[in-house]
């Protein structure tokens, strides 16, 4: 177990400073005893770049500011370093970099992207930084060996954690050279390898570094952390998001086993306005006890009354009516090309359809939790988070201490998908720990996770397409009413959500002479924000298939035509790759068919072909999904394959089962009995094809891109199998019977 006060501070290695566009890197040697321990927070904050250490035994230690949540981020970081340093990837150890140093040293690490681990981990943004760290260390080690052997450094090579002299066969390990190398200053930073010179990246896979600890249970997640004297807190929020706490009867539970105290947490606003994005204290009651189960039992027995106001009348049906009403009025123009009204008047055929997408909960396996220890002069946090920097700022605000007195200890993450961006649990844990004067681990129950989420934004989207005599679109009109987390965050927001609108107005290269895209930003009484693979891909790619059917065009051929003017050749390359690999158009028995979708997400073009069957009784089976993609360069092939497989199954779960609904202001779903996830018997075969990658300068993330095409590909296949067009999900709500 990790306990407070037993961890020693690691004195590091590497200082990276951006000066005049160049990266100045310094090394120092670690004592072997320090190399064996995970470091206490160093004097740094928002560590943007990797830190390198070499112990006397030759152990290479890379400090990473990016958290690992099963997305392979840290495995990629190891490859970045090993490619330049000439070390064996299996002999590199990773440790979490600490956010505090940046705050104290004028944001020395924050420029490439800080400590956030969203957008598939964002390790790609640090690739060149980590490569530069490895290249600089390599040249210092070579210089140290050259001085010892009295030979030109240019004649030496780095390989397998050692410097070799090919002429004499001599060898010096990195550990033997580290002390001398630390004293060397290079006159010029070496250039990093271009992709054409890579020997590891894209050529060799590195397994997840914490895979073994997940299997044997030795890995410490936030919810596993324990320290002596720690108390536990169970929290219950207002059942209607945005309501106020009216009263509670602490005396009714104070005598229950283990109960220490009952604490009220204050609301962030009154009940007349929707909730806001910021991580403020929401109306809640917290029971603190000697064990979580005692806290939870007391919380369940606690009499509580809430002031729910007008928000208690809210419902999914009512919000749907509001959205539909807005679709009858012009919205904010997000994209305009040509003259859509005129083109519609001359079209031979006009195709119309309205699509709906629901709120979705992230549903990570590890619920939100945080352990806080607040003293007079510092706050220590142990948690699983995507946003260490934000956690530090939230803790500072709630504790009243300076940000340089906040120490964040990142733990393993049991799933995130965007939910761990906000640190609601950090603010609560700090408030409770400060109130009781002891370390406190605060845990959200699954029901709190479901009903107090930051959901995937919902939307209703209206389409019209005008077709010419050849069946091809000449006019394209889209109007969407969707939950806007930007309006939710800023009531004065007057634009449109880029994330909510993609790929309707951005991130696609479909070429049509006349296009008009409009957006109505909406808010409700629940919060929405980032979610893995969010956007309107389901709506767009499903309607493209409707247009293909109406015009008598093959769905793949229509997309080829739409992409005929694409500036990025990756679109057609990926489309052709997946069509070939999946044998698009192959003969299939009645009730079995293929469907296709292609979407750009975070720079990664992703095309999928789903093969499904539907019995006449309406039983759906998704047999397989073929995926081709263009992320530019694949760094860690096995890691990318895992991201594609995991993302597709995540998207399939969204498509088949998931939906958050509201009645009487309350989120209806509370646990996996009424918010089911994909079961193992529903998982389909996923075939990953790498032939669509274009190389070049692109190294796009792969975590989110495979999610958006799943639902439209499956729904398009259902139509081809049954003749039934599905315009909303989850599919479990639809009658798919056919005859």
From TrEMBL:
One of its GO terms (molecular function) is oxidoreductase activity. PROSITE patterns: TAT. This is Xanthine dehydrogenase family protein molybdopterin-binding subunit. It comes from the Bacteria. It holds the Pfam family MoCoBD_2. InterPro entries: Ald_Oxase/Xan_DH_a/b, AldOxase/xan_DH_MoCoBD1, AldOxase/xan_DH_MoCoBD2, AldOxase/xan_DH_Mopterin-bd_sf, N-heterocyclic_Hydroxylase, OxRdtase_Mopterin-bd_su_IorB, TAT_signal. Coiled coil: none annotated. Residues 216-310 form the Aldehyde oxidase/xanthine dehydrogenase a/b hammerhead domain.
């Amino acid at each position: 177990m990790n306990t407070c006060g037993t961890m020693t501070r690691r004195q590091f290695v590497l200082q990276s400073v951006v000066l005049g566009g160049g990266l100045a890197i310094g090394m120092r040697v670690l004592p072997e005893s320090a190399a064996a321990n995970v470091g206490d927070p160093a004097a740094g904050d928002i560590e943007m770049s990797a830190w390198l250490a070499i112990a006397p035994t030759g152990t290479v230690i890379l400090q990473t500011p990016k958290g690992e949540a099963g997305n392979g981020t840290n495995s990629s970081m190891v490859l970045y370093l090993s490619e330049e340093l000439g070390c064996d990837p299996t002999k590199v150890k990773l440790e979490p970099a600490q956010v505090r140093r940046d705050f104290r040293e004028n944001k020395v690490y924050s420029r490439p992207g800080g400590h956030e681990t969203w957008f598939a981990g964002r390790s790609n943004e640090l690739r060149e930084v980590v490569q530069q760290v490895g290249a600089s260390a390599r040249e210092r080690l070579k210089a140290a060996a050259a001085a010892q052997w009295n030979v030109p450094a240019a004649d030496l090579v780095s390989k397998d954690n050692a410097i070799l002299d090919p002429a004499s066969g001599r060898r010096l390990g990195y550990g033997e050279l580290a002390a001398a190398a630390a004293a060397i200053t290079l006159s010029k930073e070496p250039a990093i390898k271009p992709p054409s010179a890579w020997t590891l990246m894209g050529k060799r896979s590195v397994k997840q570094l914490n895979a073994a600890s997940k299997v044997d249970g030795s890995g410490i997640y936030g919810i596993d952390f324990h320290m002596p004297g720690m108390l536990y807190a169970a929290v219950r929020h207002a059942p209607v998001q945005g309501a106020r706490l009216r009263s509670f009867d602490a005396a009714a539970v104070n005598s229950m086993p283990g109960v220490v105290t009952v604490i009220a947490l204050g609301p962030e606003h009154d009940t007349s306005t929707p909730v806001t994005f910021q991580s403020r204290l929401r109306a809640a009651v917290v029971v603190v006890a000697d064990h979580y189960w005692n806290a939870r039992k007391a919380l369940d027995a606690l009499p509580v009354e809430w002031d729910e106001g007008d928000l208690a009348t809210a419902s999914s049906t009512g919000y749907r009516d509001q959205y539909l009403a807005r679709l009858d009025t012009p919205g904010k123009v997000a994209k305009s090309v040509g003259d859509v009204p005129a083109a519609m008047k001359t079209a031979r055929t006009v195709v119309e359809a309205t699509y709906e997408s629901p709120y979705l909960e992230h549903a990570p396996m590890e619920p939100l939790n945080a352990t806080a220890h607040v003293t007079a002069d510092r706050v220590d946090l142990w948690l699983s988070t995507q946003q260490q920097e934000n956690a530090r700022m939230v803790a500072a605000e709630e504790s009243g201490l300076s940000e340089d007195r906040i120490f964040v200890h990142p733990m393993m993450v049991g799933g995130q998908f965007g939910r761990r961006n906000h640190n609601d649990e950090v603010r609560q844990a700090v408030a409770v720990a400060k109130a009781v004067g002891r370390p406190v681990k605060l845990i959200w129950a699954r029901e709190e996770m479901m009903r107090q989420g930051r959901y995937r934004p919902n939307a209703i989207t209206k389409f019209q397409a005008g077709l010419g005599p050849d069946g091809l679109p000449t006019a394209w009109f889209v109007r969407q009413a969707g939950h806007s987390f930007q309006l939710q965050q800023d009531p004065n927001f007057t634009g449109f959500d880029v994330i909510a609108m993609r790929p309707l107005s951005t991130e696609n290269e479909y070429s049509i002479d006349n296009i008009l895209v409009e957006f109505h930003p909406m808010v409700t009484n629940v919060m929405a924000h980032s979610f893995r693979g969010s956007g309107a891909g389901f709506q767009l790619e499903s309607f493209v298939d409707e247009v293909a059917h109406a015009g008598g065009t093959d769905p793949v051929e229509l997309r080829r035509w739409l992409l005929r003017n694409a500036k990025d050749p990756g679109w057609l390359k990926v489309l052709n790759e997946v069509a070939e690999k999946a044998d698009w158009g192959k003969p299939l028995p009645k009730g079995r068919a293929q469907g296709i979708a292609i979407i750009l997400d975070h720079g990664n073009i992703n095309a999928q072909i789903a093969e499904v069957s539907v019995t006449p009784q309406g039983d759906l089976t998704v047999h397989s999904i073929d995926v081709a993609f263009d992320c530019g360069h694949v760094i860690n092939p096995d890691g990318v394959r895992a991201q594609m497989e995991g993302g597709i199954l995540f998207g399939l779960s969204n498509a088949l089962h998931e939906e958050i609904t509201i009645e009487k202001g309350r989120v209806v779903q509370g646990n996996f009995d009424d918010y089911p996830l994909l079961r193992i018997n529903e998982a389909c075969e996923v075939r990953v094809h790498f032939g669509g990658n274009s190389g070049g300068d692109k190294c796009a993330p792969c975590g989110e891109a495979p999610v958006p095409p799943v639902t439209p590909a499956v729904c398009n296949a259902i139509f081809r199998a049954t003749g039934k067009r599905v315009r909303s999900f989850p599919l479990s709500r639809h009658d798919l019977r056919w005859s």
